[in-house]
């Protein structure tokens, strides 16, 4: 398929009629914005049936960086909606063959690491405490997210001890200490 056909199909499938396809083809920023809108519509749908086809179409874009950005937005949106790590693992497994079609290895790896990060967070939300090795594999982004948002004393203690950066360790240490003070009150 051509880029014109891909963009047209994505917009039609999402019901977005206010995007000028020719403008999107001429300007990568306009196209990325269109992809992000498609992704938001796709993520908001009750059914996950179209997700793989949307990703397959987006990763064919010659601007691999824009494709990565749009796919990561979908991964982030779905991760926030799922009921737990098993559901997210199953959903993301269906996308991996499409993600493998991205031309640049570093962009593929980025998306896979984002999926792994979300699996870690969803497992923690499900009551599991990661091992130091599992935590070490998480990106700075996820470690910081966990330090700032986790309510698990065990996770905060682990981050305070083994976070990848001083800032993460300090955030976790301070949050763990403030949680202890609130628990004593």
Description:
The structure is a single chain. The protein is mostly helical. The protein has 11 helices and no strands. It has helices at 3-14, 21-26, 28-44, 51-58, 64-81, 85-99, 105-125, 132-137, 140-149, 153-162, 166-184.
Question: Could you tell me the strand content as a percent range?
Answer: under 5%
Helicity range? over 70%
The shape, in one word, is elongated
Please tally the helical runs, counting DSSP H or I stretches of 4 or more residues.
11
Largest sheet: none
Unreliable residue runs: none
Using brief descriptors, characterize the structure shown.
single chain, 0% strand, 185 residues, 11 helices, mainly alpha
Summarize the SSE layout with pairings.
Blueprint: H1 3-14, H2 21-26, H3 28-44, H4 51-58, H5 64-81, H6 85-99, H7 105-125, H8 132-137, H9 140-149, H10 153-162, H11 166-184
Helix pairs in contact: 1-3, 3-5, 4-6, 5-7, 6-7, 9-11, 10-11
Quick synopsis:
This protein has 185 residues and is mainly α.
């Amino acid at each position: 398929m051509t880029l014109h056909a891909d963009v047209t199909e994505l917009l039609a499938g999402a019901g977005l009629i206010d995007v000028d396809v020719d403008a999107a083809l001429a300007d990568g920023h306009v196209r990325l914005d269109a992809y992000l809108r498609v992704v938001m519509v796709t993520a908001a749908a009750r059914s996950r049936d179209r997700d793989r086809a949307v990703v397959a179409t987006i990763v064919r874009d010659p601007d691999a960086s824009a494709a990565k950005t749009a796919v990561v937005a979908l991964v982030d949106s779905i991760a926030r909606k799922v009921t737990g790590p098993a559901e997210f693992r199953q959903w993301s497994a269906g996308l991996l063959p499409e993600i493998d079609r991205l031309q640049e290895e570093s962009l593929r790896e980025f998306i896979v690491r984002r999926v792994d990060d979300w699996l870690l967070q969803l497992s923690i939300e499900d009551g599991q405490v990661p091992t130091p090795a599992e935590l070490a594999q998480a990106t700075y982004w996820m470690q910081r997210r966990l330090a700032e948002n986790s309510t698990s004393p065990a996770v905060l203690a682990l981050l305070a001890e083994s976070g990848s950066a001083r800032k993460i360790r300090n955030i976790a240490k301070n949050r763990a200490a403030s949680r202890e003070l609130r628990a004593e009150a």
